[in-house]
Amino acid sequence: MEGKFAGVIINRLALNIDRMFHYSIPDGLLGKIDIGSHVTVPFGNGNKTVDGFVLSLSNHSDFDGTLKEILSVSESGPLFDREMLSVCQFLKQKYFCSYISAVKTVLPPGSGRKNKVSDKLIRGSVLNVPYDEAFDALEKLRDKAPKQCKILELLIQNDFVADSDILFLTGAGYQAIRALKDKGLARQETVEVFRLPIDYESIPRSASPVLTEEQQYAVDRICASVTENQNNTFLLHGVTGSGKTEVFLNCIEKALEIGKTAIVLVPEISLTPQMVTRFAARFGKKIAVLHSALSMGERADEYKRIKSGEARVVVGARSAIFAPLKNIGVIVIDEEHETSYKAENAPTYHAREVADFRAKQHGAAFVLASATPSVESFYQAKQGNYQLISLTRRPTAQNLPTVAVSDMREEIKNGNRSCIGLSLQREIRKNKEQGEQTILFLNRRGFSTFVSCRSCGFVIKCKNCDVSLTYHKAKNSLTCHYCGYTIKKPEVCPNCASSFIKEFGAGTQKVEEELHSLFPDLSVIRMDVDTTSVKSSHRAILEKFDKEKIDILLGTQMVAKGLDFPNVTLVGVLAADQSLFVDDFRAGERTFDLITQVCGRAGRGEKQGRALIQTYMPENSVICQAQEQDYLSFYENEIELRRQLNYPPFCDIISVLLTSPVLNGLLSYAKKLARSIHIVMQKDYDGAFELLGPSETSVTKINGRFRQRIWIKCKMNRKAEDIFARLRSYHINEKNPHINMVIENNPFGAI
DNA sequence: ATTGCCACATCC
DNA sequence: GATGTGGCAATC
Questions:
Q1: Class of domain A652-745
Q2: Which bases on strand C have an atom closer than 7 Å to a protein beta carbon?
Q3: Cβ distance A266 to A274 under 8 Å?
Q4: For chain A, which has fewer Cβ within 10 Å, the N-terminal or C-terminal residue?
Q5: CATH for A202-208+215-389 (3.50.40.10, 1.20.1250.20, 3.40.50.2000, 3.40.50.300)
Q6: Which residues touch strand C (CB under 7 A)?
Q7: Pick the CATH number of A402-448+505-642 from 3.50.30.80, 3.10.290.10, 3.10.129.10, 3.40.50.300
Q8: Which residues lie closer than 8 Å to A228 by C-beta, 6 or more apart?
């Protein structure tokens, strides 16, 4: 804590005060203020005070004017340290967010709010005299006051006993406790208890099972990095059920052994009790969990346990990457391809990139794990930047499910208009007869609708961008949301001239109705956003499916991942094509992943599993590769496409999104900006770049705001970062009263 | 965001 | 001249 001057970020969202303000530290506060301190300062005209966070300390200030003094500092000490400050700077630079939003993402849970999360305190008693005296008193009280005597015994045995426990265990009343206090034998105390999201008592500890040769090899490689403080990145590519989790657990064990800590990121959806239990069984109270289902109190308390060093392994969703651990030995990202690792609000960070940054700072091993790695990560592995480790076998001699494809064009030809084809109907029936369960997955992603031909499967795509054109009902037009290319919706299929050309879309409710009429004797349970709006019902539905042996579980994305029911032997993918043709260059990757994951839900028990993929385009390469469960072919194909069209990992894509409640002026401003960006890029950027748009977004209006987007494809580097930071300041200085700008680095999806 | 300041309009 | 309003710049 050095320096008489502090750089403070004001806790306000206004963009034009998003910079450091300097204050002098009064003598009374010297030594109490450090980086991360939460302070109140005078700000602006009048005697208004605001709160803010200290981001820098120095001995001199080059501000020419009289500095004001810091008024007060929060008693509870700094809210983040220098490492987290560097993370904030990383977030600001890479994701073009304000200082304050960067700071807020690393703050302890609850501390950004007005009403602070209160500590949970319990009242109890402690011994107030040395043991000798207590024993003497015990004898004196033996006959006269048996209740007090019992309490005294409790206090001798335990350092602290909660009042409620005393009452429960001894049957005494408050008078007895008070009597002991009056005698000076006991003293009232209040301690803080942590609200623990996990019931550790109920989870028996378990040791590592014997590892397979492949698992052991992976553990050895990663552990070597952990023990030698080497920041290596590993891509753990393992088929579903190949025991990746066991590999993490062993690496973490090693890290703990040598006094280091670990972070494990899991997608929110797979942060199931099953998963958490596995970690708790291995590491007990050394783990802390962080995810959105926790109450504010639980979150705050888990954070404290991490900060204090009691919890040394953090298992959590995306934001757990900001856990304030010291001396991190290994960071694991499970299912690293999952899109939920990308934040949707500012700062729109990708947990993988933040993890990479932190791993470098700690000299930690960085492990990315997936059965279907992101194309970006696999490319890094192929380039030799990541070390590729493959797990090709399942520890239990269980076979992968067999996958078959069912051609829905045939169904249409045969007059079956149902979204459940005859082969799938047969399989569902067969499963019922064998007393086994079925999961049906309805692939329905994104907001946009594409147009396809029911007769030949042809999908109308953009000439320039290799993404599907999006259907706009009002205009009866088709538009590309990358470059703006627009055509009128054709009346007949350009490929086969059939008039069965229509926009796509079927909901789970409709499918549910159909299932009821096709199989009146089968029980169906539906799981999607509508049925799971209540927080706990997600789990309740799955429990019901399992316990009551419901015949069919029908759902969207939610049923694709992480479920593990041994009696499920059949998985049906209702419209595999759907996710192939959203207006996103990652559509192929998404589809391959979804089909692979959902097929992996079949045959997790003893019995052989099977999956049936319904599609209008069985010859599509992604569908074929998913059927073969051939990731490598998929990757080779996809990386070639990305190379040809210059998509990540060959370049970065920056989105400049402009929104305004009034249409007037938005487009002209967007065009003006696009021209300026082009000029500046030509002047100041050293390398090839491409500028697309401005174009309308697939959802033209959100929250009453119209949207225009400019895309810039270039390789992100310091010069590009600088250009976009300048673009942001330029827009702020423009003080355009209506138009908002959001710059995003490699956004996911194109809404 | 919030404030004070300045120019200018409005009132009687 | 007194009072009111909108744009605008500055906030350590």
A1: alpha beta
A2: 8-12
A3: no
A4: N
A5: 3.40.50.300
A6: A 14, 16-17, 20-23, 42-45, 63, 65, 67-68, 735
A7: 3.40.50.300
A8: none
- A737 CA to B10 C1' distance (Å): 27
- Do A202-208+215-389 and A402-448+505-642 have matching folds? yes
DSSP string, A554-600: EESGGGTSS---TTEEEEEES-GGGGGGSSSTTHHHHHHHHHHHHHT
| Segment A468-487 mean pLDDT | 78
- Is A462 marked as binding a ligand? yes
The pLDDT tens digits of the residues spanning A678-718 come to 999 999 999 999 999 799 887 677 777 888 999 999 999 99
In chain A, what is the straight-line distance between the N-terminal and C-terminal CA atoms, in Å? 46
Q: Is pLDDT larger for residue A459 or for residue A55?
A: A55
Beta bridge partners of A552: A438, A524
Q: How far is the CA of A658 from the C1' of B12 (A)?
A: 49
Question: What is the Cα–Cα distance from A397 to A451, expressed in whole angstroms?
Answer: 44
Q: How far apart are CA A642 and CA A353, in angstroms?
A: 20
Q: Distance from residue A23 (CA) to nucleotide B6 (C1'), in Å?
A: 29
Domain chopping of chain A, boundaries: 5-106, 121-192, 202-208+215-389, 402-448+505-642, 451-504, 652-745
Query: Is the separation of the CB atoms in A656 and A727 below 8 Å?
Result: yes
Answer for A48: CB within 7 Å of strand B. yes
Give the pTM.
Answer: 0.87
What band does A536 get if pLDDT is binned at 50, 70 and 90?
low
Domain A5-106 indexed as CATH 3.40.50.300: no
* Cα gap A127→A133, rounded to integer Å: 10
Rounded distance in angstroms from the CA atom of residue A67 to the C1' atom of nucleotide B4: 19
